[in-house]
Design goal:
Length: about 700
């Protein structure tokens, strides 16, 4: 009668013990009070036995079953399952035992709601990785229990007895060695109860399944070969009926070796991932509005992010393109400001640059490749009855090459044109449009430029408006020499301020000869040998000019040398403000979105605590639970992020169209935004997922 008797009496060597518990205790702490549910239970159960555990309510039957089923931890004593001490096993191995060796049937069915009978039964297969032939096995097992026709019914469409049989099928699907059933017939009428008990006994007799059954009905216990009675957490009696000889029973469920603690195999992981994705989708689909609201933050964040990048990249690309059209290896030299009678003329007003300066630069500065000069003046052009005022520029032959400016018709200014000061000109498209009628060919025509007839030799390629809104095509180019000798000249001020404030008187001109003002330059375009040498060229040019102009160290220069990348940087600055604003919106929204996901997931974990318990009871590892919730979080943020990407693309197109800003979207940006939103889901989903995975199986199952 004592607890020790039942286990120790027989010679253990001959017996194949599947369950061997010794002096098992379980104490619950209820505040200051200790509840001793088990006070030292010992029992040994052999393979192929059919045992009924009886006892009054509160005697510890369920507690014992939960311990045997590896759902709960003992407070004391030892428990050997198929010869292995459970206390020494890690969480992963315990999960594998629940998955492969033990089938558990609960008093309250514990089926997943809103999931069909077939899906409920198939669930353990995903955790054990035995998905091959799964559908067939599900069908077979359910048919065995008389539910072959109800595969697609949900638990709420099934009667209590049918639900219990679905739960039984689920416990049997992985062909466990041991079936634990805690009052499986407690809620059922006697006919159904007898049917289920009959099924259990057949499984025991025909397949050698070890069955341990908790019941408080003698009628049910009579199906068993052995009845153990508990009272107040102790074994009161252990009575064996005359059982059929063990040898006559088939023992199909032989493999006594416990599953090893090896990691997940690929097939297991794949089958699990399939299930987890399906489960995550259906969980999201079940709460459509809630999920949509959760995704909103990520949606807005990613949308803003995409617009930000599209606008930023677009602006940058536009600046780059503009730079490229100007030439990235270009320096521009402008004269300094003039000063006469206290009035400063502003940058470029002084005539301090000379052709000779350019020649010296080309000769002395090794980083300089090409140099070109420009003189501008506003002048009137005439062609027959038409006339048009435009900017007439004297340029050296290399000017158009340096500026990356092509022709749409005709030829360039040649060295001979320059050398001989020929009266030829190249017109911009705007000038052509204003001087020539429809269908008139400007090439070869003669136009009057400031009273000098000139032959049109080319038409410039259309450049459009500059960033400052200036029409770049409203221009006429003539050879530099021609401009100096015949057309423009450069007004030499009577006093030139080339030495930081020192006034030189005009040279005497006794014969009042109208000097041909040669040798002054308004703008120099200098091309460095390479883009990398721009800075060096800038230094060298500055030094050469300072020396030639005799600028003392403490004086300010009477010229300025500009590097185009500086100009580009200023342009960049403008788009950066917009980018920063959008980045702020994006990051705040993403943060809020992430918190939203975390919040909803925490709610979801609480709501589905029982589901988590069920999954763990049928073999889910903590890792599986963690992954499942992570997948759900990631899916939420990915769907939100995906919609955000689409909306962002559309919005940036609309912005480009309506506001006229250049936008540009790289594929990498789109892929990056996707990955980023997935990352947010994972980051913010991790805490709730981990919380779910750390639940104790039995606590989760009891959660209300
Ligand atoms: N989670 C718990 N926290 C505190 N006490 C518990 C808990 N679970 C069970 N108990 C206590 O342990 C004792 C044994 O409970 P158990 O559920 O094992 O009884 P049982 O034999 O299955 O009863 P029944 O036939 O009513 O199902 C009871 O006194 C119960 O109050
Ligand atoms: Mg109970």
């Amino acid at each position: 009668m004592s607890a020790a008797l039942s286990g120790a009496a027989a010679a253990p060597a001959q017996r194949d013990l599947v369950i061997d518990v010794r002096n098992l205790t379980r104490t619950y702490q209820l505040g200051a009070q200790e509840v001793h549910a088990l006070r030292g239970v010992s029992m040994a159960i052999e393979r192929g036995e059919f045992v009924a555990i009886m006892g009054a309510s509160g005697s510890g039957k369920s507690t014992l079953m939960n311990l045997i089923g590896c759902l709960d931890q003992t407070s004391g004593g030892t428990y050997l399952l198929e010869g292995v001490d459970i206390a020494a096993l890690d969480e992963q191995t315990l999960a594998k035992i629940r998955s492969r060796r033990i089938g558990f049937v609960f008093q309250s069915f514990n089926l997943l709601p809103r999931t069909t009978a077939a899906e409920n039964v198939a669930l353990p297969l995903f955790y054990s990785g035995q998905l091959a032939d799964g559908a067939h096995r599900v069908q077979q097992t359910l048919s065995l229990l008389g539910l072959g026709e109800r595969l697609d019914n949900r638990p709420n469409q099934l009667s209590g007895g049918q639900q219990q049989r679905v739960a039984l099928a689920r416990a049997l699907i992985n062909q466990p060695a041991i079936l634990l059933a805690d009052e499986p017939t407690g809620n059922l009428d006697s006919t159904t109860a007898n049917e289920i008990m009959g099924t259990l006994r057949d499984l025991n007799r025909e397949q050698g399944l070890t069955v341990i059954l908790v019941t408080h009905e003698q009628e049910m216990a009579d199906f068993a070969d052995r009845i153990i009675t508990l009272r107040d957490g102790l074994v009161l009696s252990d009575i064996r009926k005359e059982a059929p000889a063990a040898a006559s029973r088939p023992v199909r469920l032989q493999p006594a070796a416990l599953p090893g603690a090896s990691g997940l195999s690929v097939s297991e992981l794949l089958s699990f991932l399939t299930m987890a994705f399906v489960a995550a989708f259906s969980a999201i689909g079940r709460n459509k509005l809630r999920s949509a609201l959760t995704m909103l933050g990520i949606f807005i964040g990613v949308c803003a992010l995409i617009i930000m990048l599209a606008v930023g990249e677009g602006a940058r690309a536009a600046v780059q393109a503009q730079l490229k059209s100007l030439g990235t290896d270009l320096l521009i030299v402008l004269p300094g400001s003039s000063r006469g009678g206290g009035v400063r003329g502003g940058s470029g007003s002084a005539s301090s640059l000379k052709v000779a300066d350019g020649a010296a630069i080309l000769e002395e500065d090794p980083a300089v490749a090409v140099i070109s000069y420009v003189n501008r003046q506003s002048a009137q052009l005439e062609n027959g009855d038409e006339n048009w005022s435009t900017s007439v520029q004297g340029v050296t032959p290399s000017y158009l090459t340096i500026r990356n400016w092509g022709l749409s018709a005709g030829r360039l200014i040649s060295e001979a044109d320059e050398r001989e000061g020929r009266t030829v000109c190249i017109l911009g498209q705007t000038v052509v449009d204003n001087l020539f009628g429809e269908g008139q060919d400007p090439i070869g025509a003669t136009v009057i430029v400031k009273n000098v007839p000139m032959e049109v030799i080319g038409v410039l390629a259309v450049k459009g408006h500059s960033a400052s809104g200036q029409d770049q095509d409203d221009v006429a180019l003539i050879p530099f020499r021609t401009s100096q000798v015949r057309v423009l000249g450069v007004a030499q001020p009577s006093t030139a301020m080339t030495q930081g404030g020192t006034v030189y008187p005009a040279p005497p001109n006794p014969f009042n000869i109208q000097a041909k003002l040669q040798g002054f330059v308004q703008t120099m375009y200098i091309q460095a040998r390479s883009a990398a040498e721009v800075k060096t060229a800038l230094q060298q040019v500055t030094q050469t000019l300072e020396r030639r102009h005799r600028i003392k160290p403490e004086q300010s220069d009477d010229f300025s040398v500009r590097d185009l990348t500086e100009i580009a940087e200023v342009a960049d600055e403008n788009s950066r403000v917009m980018e920063l604003l959008l980045a702020a919106i994006a990051s705040i929204s993403l943060l809020v979105g992430g918190i939203g996901i975390m919040n909803i997931l925490l709610v979801s974990v609480t709501e589905r605590t029982r589901e988590i318990g069920i999954r763990m009871a049928i073999g889910a590892r903590r890792f599986h639970v963690l992954l499942q919730f992570l997948i759900e979080a990631t899916l939420l943020s990915l769907i939100g992020g995906g919609a955000g990407v689409l909306a962002g693309i559309v919005a940036s197109k609309v912005i480009a169209h309506v506001a006229g800003w250049p936008t540009l979207l790289h594929t990498t940006v789109i892929i990056g935004a996707f990955c980023f939103s997935a990352g947010i889901g994972m980051f913010f989903g991790f805490y709730p997922a981990r919380k779910a995975s750390l639940l104790n199986p039995i606590d989760a199952l009891r959660y209300e």
